[in-house]
Design a protein that fits this description.
This protein is α+β, with helices and mostly antiparallel strands and about 350 residues long. The chain has 2 domains: about 1-270, 2-Layer Sandwich (Gyrase A, domain 2); about 270-345, Aminomethyltransferase beta-barrel domains (Elongation Factor Tu (Ef-tu), domain 3, Beta Barrel), CATH 2.40.30. The protein has 8 helices and 19 strands. The strands form 4 sheets. It has a 6-stranded mixed β-sheet. Strands 14-17-16-15-18-19 form a 6-stranded antiparallel β-barrel. Helix 1 packs across helix 7 (about 215-220). The radius of gyration is 20 Å and the shape is globular.
Length: about 350
């Protein structure tokens, strides 16, 4: 079944589906059944050779050397001053590593790799154009993915986050990754570029609903998961974006670019701001300033959505002295309205 989006949006130079039918029904599928998402816009790289593990370990915040084949992790690449260049998912395969990069961070990751990795020691390649990625998310995701592949539904459901298995789908090689990206049970299916559309349509035929970015963003915000280029960027320290609680940082691994700043915050100090949730009665404008009762500025809004479950909610970067439960004010032009600071996830 060929399904075309009703609305599209350009993200980091890629046209992505915003909605297919109705965002509320797509949202319901992610919470109650299974939603299928095109995720081809994410960048994908391979790292191979004897020094691949060491090269990646020197780039990112998590312990790449500890990964065995079939395992993976979430991590961040940092500047020398400890600011986030990109957030990545790293998959250890039998003979190489596959690195999957958030779409808005892909150019920063490319520059970072070319600056710090000697291609004679670790062979790296950008395979984005040759590969595709299709997501299946929701409580029925494991069963739906198993229906179209030779993978076992129970085995898929028991995979830890970022672990992955090789599979076959309609004669195509695939790699199925357990993904927590949207806070609901989910998998990303990595295939060749020519197979991506086929896999998406097979998921729809197997009972999944096509889901666009509008519904996916709602569940992502509900889960409190930051998106690079919206909630965090190259001015953000990993702990400010809650990457520590998302298990993206190892404090026992070897050296990596930006490690000194991350370690100093962890062992000796604290960040001055952190990502938190906001809930209100009116839509919360993204990038709007946030002020305290005394009208001093205390942060700004980042991702903002209207959730069918929670109403208007947002992620916001707030000064650390602002407490959970506090009432703060969104400044929208000449107007202000109150919102509540809440713990993540919602």
């Amino acid at each position: 079944m060929s399904v075309l989006p009703r609305e599209t949006l350009v993200v980091a130079g890629h046209t992505v589906a915003l909605t297919y039918d109705d965002a509320s029904r797509e949202y319901a599928a992610l919470h109650e059944a299974c939603g299928a998402l095109h995720r081809d816009e994410r960048a994908r790289w391979t790292f191979a050779g004897k020094e691949a593990s060491g090269a990646l370990a020197g780039l990112v915040t998590n312990d790449v050397d500890a990964l065995v084949s079939g395992a993976g992790c979430y991590a961040a690449a940092l500047t020398a001053k400890g600011r986030i260049v990109a957030d990545v998912r790293i998959l250890r395969r039998d003979t190489d590593f596959l690195v999957d990069v958030a779409s808005r961070a892909s150019s920063g990751w490319q520059e970072h790799v070319r600056k710090y990795v000697n291609p004679r020691l670790a062979k790296y390649a950008d395979i984005t154009a040759a590969t595709g990625c299709v997501g299946a998310y929701g409580p029925r995701a494991a069963a739906t993915v198993a229906r179209i592949s030779d993978a076992d539904a129970n085995a898929l459901a028991q995979l830890p986050p970022y672990h992955h298995v090789a599979a076959r789908i309609a004669g195509h090689d695939a790699r199925i990754l357990r993904s927590p990206d949207f806070g609901v049970p989910g998998f990303d299916i990595l295939v060749s570029a020519e197979a991506s559309a086929t896999v998406f349509e097979m998921l729809i035929d197997a009972g999944a609903r096509a889901v666009g970015l509008a519904a996916a963003d709602i569940v992502r915000v509900e889960a409190g998961r930051p998106e690079w280029g919206i909630d965090m960027d190259d001015a953000t320290i990993p702990q400010e974006a809650n990457l520590e609680s998302l298990h993206a940082i190892s404090y026992t691994k070897g050296c990596y670019t930006g490690q000194e700043v991350v370690a100093r915050v962890h062992f000796r100090g604290h960040v001055n701001r952190t990502l938190r949730g906001l809930a209100g009665d009116l839509p919360i404008p993204p990038r709007a300033p946030l002020v305290a009762l005394e009208r001093n500025e205390i942060g700004d809004v980042r991702s903002s959505v209207v959730s069918p479950r929670f109403g208007p909610i947002a992620l916001a970067m707030l000064r650390r002295e602002v407490s959970i439960g506090d009432e703060v004010f969104v400044r929208d032009g000449d107007h202000e309205h109150a919102v509540r600071v809440v713990q993540l996830p919602f």
